[in-house]
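Example record

One chain of 306 residues, shown exactly as stored in the release files.
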Amino acid sequence: MTCLSIGVAEANWLTDAFKGKDKKPSANAEPSKHASKHTKEAKRAASPKPHHVKLAALGPMSTPALKPSSVACTPAKFRIALDVGHTAESEGATSARNVTEFTFNLRLAQAINEKLKAEGFAATKLLVTEGKAKPSLFKRVSVASDMNADLFLSIHHDSVPNKFLEDWEFEGKKSHFSDRFSGYSVFVSRDNADFKTSFAFAELLGKAMKDSGLEYARQYTMPIMGHYQYTLLDKDTGVYAHDELIVLRKTRMPAVLLEAGSIINRDEELKMDSAERRDLISDAVVTAMKGFCRPPEPQATATVGR
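Predicted structure tokens for this chain:
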């Protein structure tokens, strides 16, 4: 495992916020885990700058066939910044059985890292950050830029706002749960420097998760979520816009955040804790990455007749 340790704390207080405490709102928002949405469309980048891998122009609320650019991508040289959400010091959400989100994130990211490298993505770097909250968000962005990453992928596990939590006792210790919601979610920022490419990979990842038999979390479309309600960009694959997340908005390369599943839901937590589920999600990430970064097509050798 190639592990890139990065100093300050976390790639999102997404979880600090939304995960368990209404603490902060979101996975990497400037002020929270699921932060407030932009209200001014004019602030969004009208024409994102192309970066590294170019895909056909895509628009929200559609899922057209993705076409690789004429510039071929070499998987072995494709630099993936694989970010472990949160840190040992700032652990994100707490599961229904009192396990930290950081623990779940690290195990899943390690499994994804191993699978990607085994499938030829040798330049993948696992980013494990130290320290506390907000400064780490910018540190992660800086590290991804310094390594000239072609894609930034942040790994997280979901929770719910405080108002949905219920009390229970696990192994003699007071805890909280919410079995009301479950499922994965894929987030992108429309203010990312290359939103169209971010969205293209997000669709591939969402489709791969769905094809693996998983269902996406639909609660983010509901008014009851309040300021945790987000725009659903792809109703088939569970891709949402979360424009304010620092690691999605400030990165200069395409960036996607995966909430792999809910650890505050008691049944889903058990599944997320299993090697089988980690394998399933890792395989989905590899499938998406292969669809996103395709090796060049061999050129036919011209034969000259005599």
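Notes: The radius of gyration is 19 Å.
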